[in-house]
Amino acid sequence: MTRFPRIDPVGLDGLLVRFGDALSEPANRAALAFRAGLERDAPTGIEECATSLVSTFVRFDPLGISLDDLHATLTERLSAQDWYCADLPEGRRRLHIPTVYGGDHAPQLAEAAEAAGLTEAEAIASLSQSEVRVTTIGFAPGQPYLGTLPEAWDIPRQTALTPQVPVGALVVAIRQLVLFSVTTPTGWRHVGQTRARLFQPESETPFLLRAGDVVQFPAISAEEFANLEGDGIRVEPLT
Amino acid sequence: MSALEILEVGPGVTVQDSGRPGYLGEGVSRGGAADRLALAEGAALLKQPVGAALEMAGLGGRFRFGRAARIALTGAPMRATLDGVPLRWNASHAVPAGAVLEIGGVTQGVYGYLTVGGGIDLPLILGAMSAHLAAGISGPLQAGDTIAFREDPGGVSGLGLGVSDRFAGGALRVLPSLQTDVFPKDMRDRFETDHFTRDTRGNRMGVRLKPSAEGYGLEAGGRILSEVITPGDIQIPGDGAPYILLAECQTTGGYPRIGTVIPADLPRVAQAAPGAKLRFRFVSREEALAAERAYRTGLDRLRAQVAPLVRDPHDINLLAYDLVSGVTDGEVMR
């Protein structure tokens, strides 16, 4: 059995601090809090930090600081507190992203609901009332993974890909949601549609979401969706 | 400020600089020139800081200069002429106002670079000028586009640079990755003795390699928790054919990785054209660090290695051209 947390080299210029080998709330919390700590008080030689679901990645200049020295610094920081119950980073926000579920906008709601053992109405109620955390941003620019949903949503990804989901698509699998920043094929099921634009490169605020933010996807009707002014998203500080 | 007018252009010509580090946590990979060494060589030939250049995948284009300029041609060698007169690659040249530069197909390698004296001048997006096709930041250049470049403080042209041959595949040095140990020992041994062929599938995100015989797919380890990806990572997807990630890769991935190509050898990966042979060799961290040191020292020495093009029968036309153009103050010719 691998013991966590653990630190491993990634290529020549990276170190990865892993808090688990599966998604869990405490391990995700640890990764987010550990990264925030590194960014608040950056050890010498660190060039960039990022998080995945349950890990913190540190990129450094391998000629500027030795791997062993940085490893020692990170080990010391790990032992300074229990990261699995650390406070989440400050400055998090709550976003309400209006979502139309099912119908022509999101044709896989019915099959996703069936896989979860729910009626369509129950599925919409469950998804629209769930409060989920941005567990990580990754794969594509500004693209969030959100979790975790109630246990019923522990449904597998499809073996065949959905050929194309549009920008702003809300998809579900393995107790997580993903909101797509680009048009893409996917193995996740398309259950909702939003007007969220997650990455706008030429905007002053190019990224809509940050890891740690809390999101709800309240249900709106197809008619309300058609009449939305802008993206309809409401953002408030999380206290 | 002056402009380079694009008359015709190949499908894979983009503006590239050193990319945008610092956005990994937002899902944006660093991007930037596929062959960073070629970017540095272009800057050294013009004796200017590393900035943005035109990166030309496989095929260049026809470019008209609005005013006199200096240019450098580096990276994968391509057929180039200035108003019909052949130009040497890995060299700097003086271009008179109104001249038309024509850059054809690569003769070896994949990515050629056109650097302009003073440097390309575009608005910064997230701190860089680079197009990032996968992220939807800017895009390939089109005929009719114009590219502004900064005032050139001037300097010599007609200089050349001997470059390391990295345009025909070869051996790649590899460090272990997070999942290297998931691959059985005999498979790792075979991986080091195999001769791989660069597949036709490849772009700025990464390149696929074909094993000589059996692949490297894992029966059980096909699904790991999605984890950070760095350029150079060698993913083994279900088909068992290695896929080496490059500058514009996605930021996370769930395929097991058998190793990571060291940064100093990434230009060689990017410049391996379809059909090129590639091999892998695991190295110690000490050896990888020594290679990185040598790579950076090499970058620092580029300017000192730039030397006037030697006059030989092949160059006479070119030199004559530069002499009559009369646009380069202090041009060195011997």
From TrEMBL, chain A:
<keyword id="KW-0378">Hydrolase</keyword>
<dbReference type="GO" id="GO:0016787">
    <property type="term" value="F:hydrolase activity"/>
</dbReference>
<dbReference type="InterPro" id="IPR010016">
    <property type="entry name" value="PxpB"/>
</dbReference>
<dbReference type="InterPro" id="IPR029000">
    <property type="entry name" value="Cyclophilin-like_dom_sf"/>
</dbReference>
<feature type="domain" description="Carboxyltransferase">
    <location>
        <begin position="5"/>
        <end position="209"/>
    </location>
</feature>
<dbReference type="InterPro" id="IPR003833">
    <property type="entry name" value="CT_C_D"/>
</dbReference>
<dbReference type="Pfam" id="PF02682">
    <property type="entry name" value="CT_C_D"/>
</dbReference>
<keyword id="KW-0547">Nucleotide-binding</keyword>
<protein>
    <submittedName>
        <fullName>KipI family sensor histidine kinase inhibitor</fullName>
    </submittedName>
</protein>
<dbReference type="GO" id="GO:0005524">
    <property type="term" value="F:ATP binding"/>
</dbReference>
<keyword id="KW-0067">ATP-binding</keyword>
TrEMBL record, chain B:
<keyword id="KW-0067">ATP-binding</keyword>
<dbReference type="GO" id="GO:0005524">
    <property type="term" value="F:ATP binding"/>
</dbReference>
<dbReference type="InterPro" id="IPR029000">
    <property type="entry name" value="Cyclophilin-like_dom_sf"/>
</dbReference>
<dbReference type="InterPro" id="IPR003778">
    <property type="entry name" value="CT_A_B"/>
</dbReference>
<keyword id="KW-0378">Hydrolase</keyword>
<feature type="domain" description="Carboxyltransferase">
    <location>
        <begin position="25"/>
        <end position="298"/>
    </location>
</feature>
<dbReference type="GO" id="GO:0004039">
    <property type="term" value="F:allophanate hydrolase activity"/>
</dbReference>
<dbReference type="Pfam" id="PF02626">
    <property type="entry name" value="CT_A_B"/>
</dbReference>
<keyword id="KW-0547">Nucleotide-binding</keyword>
<dbReference type="InterPro" id="IPR052708">
    <property type="entry name" value="PxpC"/>
</dbReference>
<protein>
    <submittedName>
        <fullName>Allophanate hydrolase</fullName>
        <ecNumber>3.5.1.54</ecNumber>
    </submittedName>
</protein>
